[in-house]
Amino acid sequence: MGFQEPDLAELAARDCLWRLVNSYSRACDRRDFALLRSLYHDDALEEHGDAFTGPPDAYVAWVADALENWSATAHYVANGLFEITDDYAEGEIYKINYHRTLDESEEIVTGSRSLDRFARRRGEWRFLGRCVTLDWAQRRPVSADAHESFAAASPHGKSGPADPSYRKLTLFGAMPNEAATKTEAGARHVE
Question: Is the distance from CB of 23 to CB of 35 less than 8 angstroms?
């Protein structure tokens, strides 16, 4: 299978799709739920197996609750493939996801893929559907020494508006002040 050089419209669409999947990670890790919701069309469907399947508003509420169970998360987009036809696109996005427990004792690292569908409406690309698949998972104790000694002079990332990115990257905009609603559900991973 070979590839042909894309035209400028395809390059622009791919750039939008990359920005979209990377903004998803930022929204989750910074707990910016307004940003997260803005990435979806109103009729989108989010699928996380038996844990959650539903529309964007319910998904954002579910994510806000799920992230309350973790002191830190980091969702890294490793690579992705996109196929684009007019105003519709599909993507297979490989991710590495980090979760640290609230008591700072354990971390869970997973490898997942999101099988994404996108639509361009009124000139904007947004998610039309995401189906998350888990490829591998690892659970291990947290090494407090590593977190405190490795690059200790660097400021530590935060979940929310206290994160250094909100002061240093002014073009990203300020995060609205949102309160997550807690439920009695157990800890869940968000990927």
Answer: yes
Percentages (nearest 5) of helix, strand, coil residues in the chain: 30, 40, 30
Q: Beta 40-48 vs 124-141: how paired, if at all?
A: parallel
Predicted TM-score (pTM) of this structure: 0.84
Query: Phi and psi (nearest 5°) for 156?
Result: -80, 145
Report CA-CA distances (Å) from 103 to 99, 106, 143, 152: 12, 8, 13, 20
Token pair of 46 as six digits: 């989010």
CB 73 within 8 A of CB 190: yes
Give alpha helix (H) positions in the chain. Answer: 8-29, 33-38, 56-67, 144-149, 165-168
Please identify which residue in the block is written with the tokens 């999947």.
21
Beta pairing, strands 40-48 & 70-85:
unpaired
What are the pLDDT digits (tens) for 26-68? 999 999 999 999 999 999 999 999 999 999 999 999 999 999 9
> Could you give the domains of the chain?
8-172 (3.10.450.50)
